[in-house]
Design brief:
- With about 240 residues, the protein is mainly alpha-helical.
- It folds into three domains: about 55 residues; about 60 residues; about 70 residues, Heat Shock Protein 90, CATH 3.30.565.
- The chain has six helices and four strands.
- Strands 1-3 form a two-stranded antiparallel sheet. A two-stranded parallel sheet has the order 2-4.
- Helix 2 runs antiparallel to helix 3, helix 3 crosses helix 6 and helix 4 packs across helix 6.
- The longest helix has about 50 residues.
- The radius of gyration is 38 Å and the shape is elongated.
- Its EC number is 2.7.13.3.
Length: about 240
């Protein structure tokens, strides 16, 4: 007896298997895609929080820092470096703001003096001697303005590491006298007096020296009570450097 079976049954069975495998693979791929999406989204959540914190930082909010607690451990070094950069920027902005305020205050006095003296001189006809006195007074104010420009140039040089320092031998007494003369108007407004004295010479960059001593005198004027004396002295101590 011979039993025969057609191949159509097997082909139909294979077709059903193929369809089931295709459905299973499609569903598995979809589930894997959704699972990957949520896993990646959850993993990137700390980065989105950091991005939101970064967008909130502006020139008026430089005191804002990234929260290192919300960042993954792998990003702690990056967050610390970013916060350190913000600290440097914050200090730079504060220095720039303070410098702008100080510069505006310093410029106000000589400019006001120039305008008032010129307006008074033009109020009526005056003699040649009076005009000469006015011009001499104006020259003093112009010299003060020139020294302020030197101070601004100093800041530009100090911020530029490529500019070489050029030290030279300087007379201490002369340098202190120039610095005191520069702050004379500000000291008068603050009702304090600056007395300087010194002997010997110093090997230094003129602008750097003037700025360093000028910062000390500026702070002294700011915090010294009225009707007091600010005394600046320099003494030669031999082989000191």
């Amino acid at each position: 007896m011979v039993v025969a079976r057609t191949a159509s049954d097997r082909m139909e069975l294979l077709s059903e298997y193929r369809t089931e495998v295709w459905y299973a693979a499609s569903i598995g791929t979809l589930l894997a895609t959704l699972l990957s999406f949520f896993l990646v989204r959850g993993g990137l959540r700390p980065l989105r929080l950091m991005a939101a914190q970064t967008h909130a930082i502006s020139a008026n909010r430089l005191d804002t820092r990234l929260d290192i607690r919300s960042a993954p451990k792998e990003l702690h070094d990056i967050v610390e470096s970013f916060n350190a950069m913000l600290d440097r920027l914050h200090r730079s902005f504060e220095q720039l703001t303070q410098f702008s305020a100080d510069l505006a205050h310093d410029l106000r006095t000589p400019l006001n003096n120039l305008m008032v003296q010129t307006q008074v001189a033009l109020g009526k006809q005056r003699s040649v001697e009076e005009y000469q006195g006015l011009l001499s007074s104006n020259i003093e104010e112009y010299e003060r303005l020139a020294r302020m420009m030197e101070s601004m140039l100093f800041l530009a040089r100090a911020e530029n590491a490529h500019v070489a320092v050029k030290p030279q031998m300087l007379n201490v007494e002369d340098e202190l006298a120039k610095i005191a003369d520069y702050f004379e108007g500000i000291a008068e407004e603050a009702k304090v007096r600056i007395v300087v004295g010194g002997t010997g010479e110093i090997f230094a960059d003129p602008m750097l020296l003037r700025r360093a001593v000028g910062n000390l005198i500026s702070n002294a004027i700011r915090y010294t009570p009225e009707e007091r004396i600010i005394r600046v002295e320099a003494t030669d101590v031999g082989n000191a450097t």
